Amino acid sequence: MNEDALNMSIRRFLKKVGITSQREIENAARTMAEDGRLPSGSVPVTVTLRCDALGVEHGVDGEIELKE
User: Fold this and answer.
1) Domain of 40?
2) DSSP string, the chain
3) pLDDT tens digits, one per residue of 5-46
4) Cβ proximity of 42 and 67 under 8 Å
5) What's the total number of domains in the chain?
6) Is the pTM of this model over 0.85?
């Protein structure tokens, strides 16, 4: 196994996940704000990473602050 290649591949994947996830959250928050439905304060968020081929399932919980 080439550790450097694995590391770079994982980093590319996580960068893609981060960019697309941020875009989705921003679009949803923008739409809700335009409709007057944006919650105040913070909202819970969960991300689940699953890789069946490696037998991995990992969840990350957190909060996102929404301020007008």
Assistant:
1) 3-66
2) --HHHHHHHHHHHHHHHHHHHHHHHHHHHHHHHHTT-PPSEEEEEEEEEEEGGGTEEEEEEEEEEE--
3) 999 999 999 999 999 999 999 999 999 999 999 999 999 999
4) no
5) 1
6) yes
